[in-house]
Amino acid sequence: MSYPSRIVCLTEETTETLYLLGEGDRVVGISGYTVRPPGARQKPKVSSFLHARYEKIEALKPDLILAFSDLQADITNDLVKRGYPVFTFNQRSVAEILQMIRVLAGIVGVPDKGIALASGFERHLDAIRERAAALPRRPTVFFEEWYDPLISGIRWTEELVSIAGGDPIFPELAHAGLAKDRIVTSEQVIERAPEVIIGSWCGKPVRKERIAARPGWQDVPAVRNDQIYEVKSTYILQPGPAALTDGVAQLHDIIRRVTMER
Q1: At what angle do helices 155-164 and 248-261 cross, to 10 degrees?
Q2: Is 69 left (phi over 0), alpha (psi -120 to 50) or beta?
Q3: Strand runs (DSSP E) across the chain, as ranges?
Q4: Do 65 and 137 sit in the same domain of this protein?
Q5: Is residue 127 situated within a structural domain?
Q6: SS3 195
Q7: Does a structural domain hold residue 116?
Q8: Are 31 and 45 in contact (CB under 8 A)?
């Protein structure tokens, strides 16, 4: 075969993309954190986000391994030294997620499918934007990616909040790719007084009571008016199809509900 046919995906978004392209049969190994699509869960699990089981990968005889970001640099370095072809994506924005889809489709030899899939996602986002434009107002939103230390949302989440009809309270941090560069203080959040708090703690359920009990937060509008919500990380913190579909739809539903209540 002239294109990769035995692909190991070390993160969920490339697995889901390949399935949506109709190329899921090429996936031979997945991350243990993979949830979408459900059918992919039957594939051998060869990695967590930061660790890989090299003997399991070797047994699968992959002709391509797909990884994500600097966080997997140690894994990918080891895999390259072991002789495997590795492609590491590093998408951090909505536009880069769409580019990832088109590039991945090209890598596996189905570029037209990639163009069609990305175009479908763009139309969906445009429809959300249109509905958001009809809302009576745009509430201010704190997207909380982690709780200790407090970390504001990565770029694609902040962009999706904007598309969904909200105004992120830390727009100046949206372009910071590393989590350490998006750490904020409790005092900064209090000062910016978000009307809505949307939490998504990777691998952990958001505890509304924990947020509401933070010292000084009782007068934050989102806390005072009980406007604290969760979007589970599998829907919004995976930089792929999930965020562009279910994730942004959930953000819009939250923001619409908030704006209609007052």
Answers
A1: 50
A2: left
A3: 7-9, 27-31, 45-47, 64-68, 86-89, 140-147, 150-152, 167-168, 196-199, 228-230
A4: no
A5: yes
A6: coil
A7: no
A8: yes
Which SS3 state, helix, strand or coil, does residue 261 take? helix
Closest CA to 75 of 45, 46, 51, 48: 51
Give the tens place of pLDDT for each residue, 169-207: 999 998 898 889 999 999 999 999 999 999 999 889 999
Bridge pairing between strands 150-152 and 140-147: antiparallel
Specify if 98 maps to a domain: no
Q: Does 155 lie in the same domain as 53?
A: no
56 in helix, strand or coil?
A: helix
Distance of CA 4 to the CA centre of its chain: 25
Is residue 254 situated within a structural domain? yes
Tokens 């997997």 map to which residue?
72
**Whole-angstrom distance, CA of residue 258 vs CA of residue 85:** 48
| Neighbour count for residue 221 (Cβ, 10 Å) | 14
pLDDT tens-digit readout, 225-256: 999 999 999 999 999 999 999 999 999 999 99
> Do 126 and 85 reside in the same domain of the chain?
no
For residue 24, give the CATH number of its domain.
3.40.50.1980
Contact assessment for residue 30 and residue 45, using Cβ atoms and an 8 Å cutoff: yes
Q: Which residue has the tokens 């590393």?
A: 178
145: helix, strand or coil: strand
* Burial environment of residue 69 by CB neighbours within 10 A (0 to 12, 13 to 18, 19 or more): middle
**Residues 250, 236 contacting (CB under 8 angstroms):** yes
